[in-house]
Amino acid sequence: MKKVDELKQMKANLKEEVRSLNTENKIDEASTKLEELRSLDKQIEIQMELDKEEQREVEIKMEKRENNNQKLETRTVFTKAVQGKSLTQEERALVQASVNSDGGYLVPEEIKNEINELKRQYKSAKEIIGTVPVTTEAGSFVQEDLAGITELVNFDEDNSGLDEQKPKFRNIEYKVANYGSVTPISRSFLQDETANFMNFLNGHFAKKAIRTENAKIFAALKTGKTAKAVTDLKSLKKIVNVDIDPAIKALAVMAMNQDAFNALDEMEDNNGRPLLQKDPANPTQYLVLGLPVHVYSNAELPSVDGQAPMFIGATSEGAKFFDRGVYEVAVSTEAGFTKNQNVARVVERFDVKQADTSAYVLAEIDVLPEV
Fold first, then answer.
1. What's CA 283's distance to the chain center, in Å?
2. Does residue 69 carry a pLDDT above 50?
3. Helix (H, G, I), strand (E, B), or coil: what is residue 355?
4. Domain encompassing residue 132
């Protein structure tokens, strides 16, 4: 018998006892028992709430177990499909074939999340630009440049100059491309029942994906820009104070390579204090003139002829990453035939386009060693 049922039975017995005492005119005893009855009511109410809470906990655990089982089943079925093993009709319903002519399978959500987690281990330039999720291979994105934003129109006055108040929008056309890694793997590794080969593919792809995405982002940010020279603290302050619109200062960052970071690290202000300061709110983040600093590898963002590049301003408005949001995996059994290998391909789709060029400045700082 449940605890709450025992309490209800006690209540019923106690109620009869109160009724009997009252009939016998034992008022004081009846009053005492009545207080016990009221206390028992409260105890029953508490026990019922406890039972509900326990039931909710059980349901949550069951739901989590079902979700984990579903994830495991989806992963197992997806792995079987990539391995080229036959699937039942129920299993085929869990995987989605690519619509591309060269075949493959769309990566399910849980494996997609694993890839994204692996990518977060590396420094991504996506964090300094805007990301636009897209559902089509090509299209356009409308953006109003910050430099062209006008005031509100007073409709109660003569609006003869209304045409001048029309917002000036930029139409950014995108067309996502397929970017992928091609990895030779042994046939025995491919058939590994524990699906370790998928973990290997995901990790291998994540490193190459970040390197590719960063290269496209830096190229877009440089397009058509003439670099401004940073020769000293004064010239750097002028870029931050004059060339960057105060209206977007809250969005501004400094993105640079290791050479530029090192050059700034050697600079001091007029009071002899280091120019690079740690953010009090985030000790892992550096600030320069109040702007967050993002540092990328020299291998990804190289210095050229002793000049290290820097992007200063609202780069999130300066370029857009159009993300198709899907990964595909395919395995070819023919490509590595002569070496008893299979070749695995993991593909993502994206495009990067320059957007508001007035939102940021391309700068260069001299990093040539003194002679």
1. 22
2. no
3. coil
4. 107-136+180-371
pLDDT at 180 over 80: yes
Query: Residues 182, 345: contact at Cβ < 8 Å?
Result: yes
- Cβ atoms of residues 105 and 97 within 8 Å: yes
Q: Is 314 exposed, middle or buried (0-12, 13-18, 19+ CB in 10 A)?
A: buried
Q: Report the C-alpha gap between 6 and 47 in whole angstroms.
A: 11
| Among 58, 77, 96, residue at a domain's last position | 77
d(CA 368, CA 371): 9
Residue written as tokens 């009545």? 34
Place of tokens 């025992």: 6
CB-CB contact of 202 with 306 (8 Å): no
Segment 279-325, tens digit of pLDDT? 988 888 999 999 999 999 999 999 999 999 999 999 999 999 999 99
Q: Are residues 65 and 112 in the same domain?
A: no
Close Cβ partners of 352 (under 8 Å, ≥ 6 residues apart) = 129, 213, 216, 217, 219, 220, 319, 320, 321, 322
Q: Name the helix (H) or strand (E) containing 211.
A: helix 196-222
* Prediction pTM value: 0.73
CA distances from 280 to 127, 251, 267, 283, 284 (A): 21, 18, 20, 6, 9
By three-state DSSP, how is residue 305 classified? Answer: coil
The closest of 295, 303, 297 to 364, measured between CA atoms, is: 303
Instruction: For residues 288 and 194, state if they share a domain.
Output: yes
pLDDT digits (tens, 9 = 90+) for 76-100: 777 777 777 777 777 776 766 665 6
